[in-house]
Amino acid sequence: MARSDHTISMFEFSFGPSTLAAEAGSTSVLRLRNDGTPLHDWAILSTPITSETGLRSDDLIASARVEPGAVVILEFDAPPPGTYQIICTISGHSEGMEGRLVVTP
């Protein structure tokens, strides 16, 4: 099974890179680094939302909270092929802190 490793930086208020690619069923290992000053998180959603107030726990494919200056390792198996929304679910952060996961067959 394929494996991919990525480093994601969190800033005020964006992700870098904002787009990730993975093969369906592959394992992704992310090094999430909060280079900002507030608490951030990184979440892949199974269903797109327009604001973090519409988020339900069963909408999350994978997520992790990262304190300022900290690094968290997040490992997940890529979902079926498609494009998935990535956001910071901290109130007020989803505008600007968005990205996408593109999963190929």
Query: Which structural category do the helix and sheet elements fall into?
Result: mainly beta
Question: How many DSSP H or I helices?
Answer: 0
Give the tally of β-strands: 9
Could you name the CATH class? Mainly Beta
Largest sheet: 5 strands, mixed
Domain count: 1
Shape: globular
> Span from first to last CA?
13 Å
Order of helices and strands: EEEEEEEEE
Quick check: average pLDDT? 90
- CATH topology assignment: Immunoglobulin-like
CATH architecture assignment name: Sandwich
Give the radius of gyration: 13 Å
If you had to describe this structure to a student in words, what would you say it looks like?
The chain is an all-beta fold. The protein has a single domain, classed as Cupredoxins -  blue copper proteins (Immunoglobulin-like, Sandwich). 0% of the residues lie in helices and 55% in strands. A hairpin with a 2-residue loop joins β1 and β2.
